[in-house]
Design brief:
25% helix; 6-stranded mixed beta sheet; 6 helices
Length: 259
């Protein structure tokens, strides 16, 4: 399984420009199984209530950016994931992480933990269910940015192999980003692929450091802090299975139920 992280410098509220930049980065990445885009990759992290309402005036199935993701997935014979601000089936605004597959199938996860310090909780409704997507023999757990701070929500019950985290994580908390990515990989005995943005918006500067980490907490791919950087790597499922068998940490996990 080959994963490519597309670390974009997002143009504020400019979907056409962001789609063009992402397509160029996909070309640069070449053949892969999965392209990963950051959180709200087509617009930037919009949390102003009125701006979010205008942005999410279309329902999820009318999203231009989602249609673009489906087209890229089909044409490139690879899955594409990343989050978008859309209206859900009930008309509520959500930060929805899509996982789109070449055969037209798509799954999604609505962000559970909304970043209240940035006003996200006022503009969007939180999700209520986790989402694991099987694709080409690998099980992917979808998560979004602030979720990374909540290990109970992301706890692996032997349900997934790769934790995908798409983010707009500020450079001022870069050390926290890197630390939590490693922690989630080690405690859940899984690969973690974290795709962050670069550049600036109205509130923050973003430092990138998109990376893939193995189940031992070792960084196996790192995009650094470069704008519009592409980093790709192969993940070895046989090695992961062997490590889990030899060192079966998950067998001793505590049982719990989220209500």
């Amino acid at each position: 399984m080959r994963i490519a992280l597309l670390q974009t410098n997002i143009s504020w509220m400019d979907e056409a420009s962001n789609m063009m930049a992402a397509a160029a980065m996909m070309d640069k990445a070449g053949n892969t199984d999965l392209y990963v885009l950051p959180e709200m990759w087509s617009t930037g992290f919009v949390t102003d209530v009125e701006e979010a309402r205008r942005l999410s005036s279309a329902t999820h199935d009318q999203s231009t950016a989602l249609a673009w993701m489906k087209e890229q997935s089909r044409n490139r014979n690879a899955a594409v994931c990343g989050s978008l601000a859309v209206r859900n089936e009930e008309g509520k605004m959500v930060n929805r992480h899509y996982f789109v597959q070449p055969d037209g199938k798509s799954a999604f996860y609505d962000k559970r933990h909304l970043f209240r310090m940035g006003g996200e909780d006022k503009a969007y409704s939180c999700g209520t269910r986790p989402c694991v997507v099987p694709f080409r023999g690998v099980r992917f757990m979808l998560s979004t940015c602030y979720d990374l701070r909540f290990p109970v929500w992301l706890r692996n019950t032997s349900a997934y192999d790769v934790l995908l985290c798409v983010a707009n994580w500020p450079e001022s908390r870069q050390h926290v980003w890197e630390t939590l990515l490693k922690a989630r990989a080690i405690e859940n005995q899984c690969f973690v692929a974290g795709c962050n943005r670069t550049g600036d918006d109205t509130a923050c500067h973003y430092g990138g450091k998109s990376m893939v980490i193995d189940a031992r907490g070792k960084i196996i791919a790192d995009a650094g802090s470069t704008d519009n950087a592409v980093v790709a790597c192969d993940i070895n499922m046989e090695q992961l299975s062997s490590f889990r068998s030899k060192f079966p940490v998950l067998n001793d996990r505590d049982e719990f139920e989220i209500i």
